[in-house]
Amino acid sequence: MRHGTHGSQRIIRSGAVLLASAVVLTACGDSSHPLGGKPYDAADQVAVSAGGKATAVTAAGGKARRTVDADKPLEVSATGDEGRITDVVVVDGEGRHVRGELAADGTRWRNTTPLAAGVTYTVKVSTENEDGHPGRTTSAFRTREAPEDKRLEVTLGPEAGTYGVGQPITAELSKKVEKAEQRRIVERALRVTSTPEVTGSWHWVDDKKLHYRPKEYWPTNARISVESRLEGLQVRKGLYGGESEPLALRTGDRVEAVADAQSLQMTVKRNGEVVKTFPITTGKAGFRTRNGTKVILGRQSFVRMTSTSIGIGPGSSEYYDMPVHWATRLTWSGEYVHAAPWSSGSHGYANVSHGCTGMSTANARWFFNNVRQGDLVTHVNTEGTDMPAFGNGFGDWNLTWEEWQKGSSLQRAVQEAGPDTSGGAGRLRPGV
Prior knowledge:
Elements: H1 2-28, E1 40-41, E2 46-50, E3 53-54, E4 67-68, E5 74-78, E6 83-92, E7 100-102, E8 108-111, E9 120-129, E10 134-143, E11 151-152, E12 154-157, E13 161-163, E14 169-173, H2 180-189, E15 190-195, E16 200-206, E17 209-214, E18 223-228, E19 234-236, E20 239-241, E21 247-251, E22 255-260, E23 265-270, E24 273-279, E25 292-295, E26 298-306, E27 321-329, E28 336-339, E29 357-359, H3 361-370, E30 376-380, H4 401-405, H5 409-417
Parallel strand pairs: 1-10, 4-10, 11-20, 13-21, 22-30, 28-29
Antiparallel strand pairs: 2-3, 2-5, 5-8, 6-9, 7-8, 9-10, 12-14, 14-17, 15-18, 16-17, 18-21, 19-20, 22-23, 23-24, 25-30, 26-27, 27-28
């Protein structure tokens, strides 16, 4: 207790010294000092131009009176010998700042990052005259909308709704983005937030598609918001971000099924507790079910399945054409969990399917009614090939977190930059 009291006294004494210093400084102030007066209006000492065209100088909060091309340079110039520019702040309505470079003599400022298309900018300029008195002026202008053929549209997925904890988020781009620096612009603009908060990252599947997933599965009963802030941003010369609808998702319970092709049993867990185990059959030799974790893509109470979809015609002994009930889809190529009453004698005893996971009608119906899109099914011991991460459904969880992060342009930039020794300042981070 004594140490705590002395510490409090030390803090109070320090505060008193600081306060006293502040009082002394104020007392020594002089209203005639250059920095003590009200900033003068510097409108007649500054010219603001974009694309070589002067913009209308307006009062703070005034509307832009001139529209300019976004791909032209922005320049702020001192118009005479009476003063110099000391600072320039350029910001749009979204709070996005434009970086720039001020000449050493204070005569000119030019942007070093491109302007966005279809937005209004406010330009705040600070000056200083020959006597050291500060001046201020504000200008506003608007950039032209990008033509439709020069817009990069982003479609976020899946549709709004409630999903299982394994559901990845997708972003489909209308045009290819190949270069690393351009990908970083796109990736920074795609924001994902969740309650509870998680660590996650985007992964470039190809030049037009990104997936987002957390390090681990989503929490149960989470709220997830996804938005693109790419609108108007220049991705490359002649290509600007387009509008995008935000997305709101929720997760339900954590439902996981493990299908073991060796024991021929499927075990279903809900929030970590086993709720059901039943006998199954999986792919036979030549048609082995893929090993790995798959995210449920959808459900159909009835599907007509034919072997022609996998290249087996009517003349083959492996040909089939039959109605199938209670089908839960796992891959685009045709792996399902479904009712298979025709092979009931093999359930729990032998693998006899063409790649699907078969079970009794009652069990298939129970499974169908107790899972949703985004829930997880993992196949083990199938002797089949591994489920690919992309291209045949959602195999995203078959990549380790380290492998996943390698597909992020932002994470790659951090790794290439080396360890951060700045205490955290300036570190690139993916939208989380």
